[in-house]
Structures
1.
Amino acid sequence: MRRACLVLTLALVGAGASLALAPPPASWIGAAGALAAAAMLFAWAIFRVNSSFWVETHWRAPRPSGAVALTFDDGPDEYFTARVLDILAEKGVPATFFVVGERVERHPELIRRAHELGHAIGNHTHTHSLRFHFRHGSGLRREISACSDAIRSTIGLEPRLFRAPQGLKTPVLGDVLREHGMTAIGWQIRGMDYLIRDPDRIARRMVQGAEAGGVLLLHDGGGLQGSADRSATVRALPMVIDGLRARGFTFVRADHLFSVPAYRTECAEAGR
């Protein structure tokens, strides 16, 4: 919150200076301009998915890389996640799953299977509620802790990777993530598969838009935003993998792309 307070303080100082140094109505215009600029900065820092203003956010490798990190949000889903895991296993592709805690509690077997296949499991809050962004610190802590608890009870490891619902990050969330020692993960390109129902369009968007070292986003769970049907994602996934490989890309987990820990504590082989 220190950065938020600094922005607000600078805005108030600018507004005060305008009122003190300029006669009306110029002083009013200057004060309004200072406050508007502060409001725009706040909005940019919250809504820009890859902004590191409130908390450092990883979305593209800091060094040249021929790898990309394929990530999935909003699961697990008893039908679609199982299909995604089958395709990833067939193609030999590691991925990172940002899961919803209450869905982990309903389908722990899918998260255990994903972990056993070598995929990383990250925190995507417990309920994925739109109200998440308006909660105070204790509310955010409960959401994040409940999801981490669900993951830990399922695979025995506490996640350190986090992706915010809709990618939005507030100053309070930044404070909570630092308290939990968590790493925020954004994305370089997303398939828009929560809206697009044509698998060819999803695949084309991903393959053409991917950049070296980028984080790629698809969804294996449905109904939290857009359609509940992720069958187009499942059909697009083999085309995405084959198309990216044709471009010369390899696949790694998000934690490996950024050389950050996937879990709070893990033995040498546990999270690989």
Note: The chain has two domains: 2-47, 57-258.
2.
Amino acid sequence: MGSTGSIGRSSLDVLSRMRDQYQVVALAGGSRWKELAEQTIIWGPELVAITDERVSDDMSEAVRGHTRVLSGQSSLFDLVDQCDFDVVIVGVVGTAALPATIRAVERGKRVALANKESLVVAGSIIAPLAKESGAEVIPIDSEHSAVFQAMHAGRECDVRRVILTASGGPFRTWSADRMANARLDDALNHPTWDMGPKISIDSATMMNKALEIVEARWLFSLSHEQIEVVIHPESIVHSLVEFFDGSMVAQLGTPDMRTPIQYALTYPARLRCPSAALDLAAIREMHFEPPDVERFPALRLGHEVAARGGTAGAVFNGANEAAVGKFRQGAMAFGDIAKTVQRVLERHEFVADPSLADLMQADRWGRDEVIRCMTV
């Protein structure tokens, strides 16, 4: 799901080297129908879903005779519900894939998850459901994949803390005043990773790390006090796990998303990967520093949301997506993104034990409240 995006393209690149072991049985995209059609003809899936109904006729015509096309907002769910598969890669940004992700977990499948929002919004539903169904939720994002790998050095009860590394984004050395009026081009200019615009902006605000704090809370059954963030500009150490005996286990590698994608597919096996090998002698040195929560207040919000649980994550995610959207439109200053999200969280009427319907409503409310905050 999300085959035309950055994660999707990297996933297909990985799979192109393992055609003797893996078959692509379904693809899904949003509005890039031409690219999705090209992928469909190359890979020959049984089903393809396109969520943007405005281009569904174009898509259907382009792949006529090759595969069956599902369309509309429910097409992701229908694809997961109808298709016979072993692993689903969730590379869709936002909550559009949440019902489909939950359905995959219900079916007991392996869910290779690059979508932070699924667990940020609905971790309270997905985590217990996975235990019940036997589904494997394996993270694709580099930080959580690193934690997932390092966790195998001990037992869950042996973990003292998890340390998520962050590059610091493009504004790591900027002053607060300069950051407040940063331009869109500045925010999209990530120093290490090649990501889509929304994730790049989240990295610039460090909201991505705040979301990862919440995600780690659900993925690894941690309290928010067990999760810390450290700035590591080189993005070589992807994250660390510290055990109660003082041992610290890290996963290192070149900054290439194909490594965690492939590991989520092949786990527990490790196969040759197209990523470049890491040359420690060439690196010579690495740097670590504490995050500045005054310049990056999103980190504090991430801990608050992880501690609270319930509908807080849904509001947090929805408000951030809406605020980032306003910034991309030029309707909100960069420095107001985290401030607006905080205001929305403060106005939220918290529900401690929400249903999926409650969570989706909270997500919508968070988005709408951003607009109301802008007009007050």
Note: The beta strands are 26-29, 47-50, 68-71, 87-90, 110-113, 136-139, 159-166, 227-231, 237-243, 248-252.
3.
Amino acid sequence: MSRVKKKVLVIVAHPDDETLWAGGTILSNPHWECYIISLCRGKDEDRSVRFHNALKVLNAKGAMADMDDGPEQIPLEDADVEKTILSLMPPGHYDLVISHNPTGEYTRHRRHEETGKAVIKLWHRGKINTDEMWIFAYEDNNRNKYPEAVRNASIYCILPEDIWLKKYKIVTQTYGFKAGGFEAETTPHAESFWQFVESDAASEWLFNLINLKTL
């Protein structure tokens, strides 16, 4: 548990992503001043209420938008995703920004990918002001297993059992996902992140990822 006070911004596509992929890290750092934004489900009366209840458990504040999140996963315009992020995030400097991987955390959800790409681009263009960025590092071996933390990522941490249980309760009780369902079974016991302290390095990494996907 860290006692270092940091101003932290967490940018996710959906309510519950903050808990699944970084909840243990947030719970382990109660001195963080954490603001969490979700780009989707803002008008979903059930999910939005649960999101704000989760924020209380995480000792965080936050806001939501209502970008299209239909099952068809119709691609969103990059400019619209970026505009939505900027409209939700409080202005100013952050010690740390945490967000999705541009390739997602599992195979596949387009909104995760679009969010991760937009966050890196905004940082590189100076629209997000932060000392460093952590990108979720998980993989599911093309749906052959539940998402797992990447062991050789920049940051890899096995959660203490009490922290994991708090995280699991947010998923199953606060968000109401059933035990045995995807979200509950996915809830990782370890969390990992790709860490960047320079926007140029993150931008180059993104460029290489995009090129690799198009080969």
Note: The longest strand covers residues 33-40.
